[in-house]
Amino acid sequence: MPYEIPQNLKYVEKIAFGLTFWQLFWIALFGALTGIVFLKTNLYFPLKIILCIPLMGLGTGFAFFDFAEHAKTLKNYFFDVKHAGLFDKKLDNFIEAKKIGDNAIYLKNGSMRAVLEVTPINFSILSPVEQKAIITAYKDFLNSLNFPIQIAMRTTSLNLDDYLFNLRQKVLQKNDAELEKEFESFKEFVQKFIEENSVKNRLFYVVIPYSPYAKSNPFKDALTIAKNRFFGEKQKTSVEINKEIASNQLEIRVELCREKLHRCGLLARRLEDKELFALLASYFDSYIQAGNDYFFPITMLENFKEANA
Q1: So what's the pLDDT on residue 139?
Q2: Main-chain dihedrals φ then ψ at residue 198, nearest 5 degrees
């Protein structure tokens, strides 16, 4: 008989009286404070009662109502970063990305991430046989993984300007006034429908990690660099070798995921450096979307200057 598996399962050992260690700790702490106020102070009795009741309430809250977690959440809300731009220095301690290169994201802990952009399919319109085949292929994809992956989805405003522009060019080639009139009516309908219904576009990504690669040998690297300078030869240092090995291993994982996703009927392509930068930056600063690409005021200004230089 099928049954729903509970989520967020957590095992906590009971120490005494059916209470956990932290429950006993909070009860003992606030109980001791209450006892000190009530027995060791010379305050008026009504004032003792007024002070002891909140202490007992706090003890109960921390022990049974998870006040500690709520206090941590409030602290994070008031003191953590809420608004920050891409180039704000306060983001250094907030994001883990260190640099982007070789079509990968390098994190501060030395690990790497590759990102696959996946084109989805309309699963609901497929026949039962096709759906079963895709589910089986997807199970095979998950079972073949010996490393963790992250599947990310983001929702963006739907932009059909490129599609409508290309369609208009085809209409103009027909040199048919009636067809052009129908196109303008179609364009107005599509744009109005998107605006009134807030139609969104969903983008899917698979994040593939590789971490960490072997540490470098500074002494050996120094000897290699000195030898290269003296003999005019070029040999790779351990840093370069480790980087090459890591890139190769990450590429193997990318190809494995791409092949398995292809068997599911899903097209996947690896994002390049500029696309990775645009993807990460789009979470922090305003951007303009065209298709599945992201353009920023800064990069657009730089491209404009280069084009007119």
Answers
A1: 92
A2: 50, 50
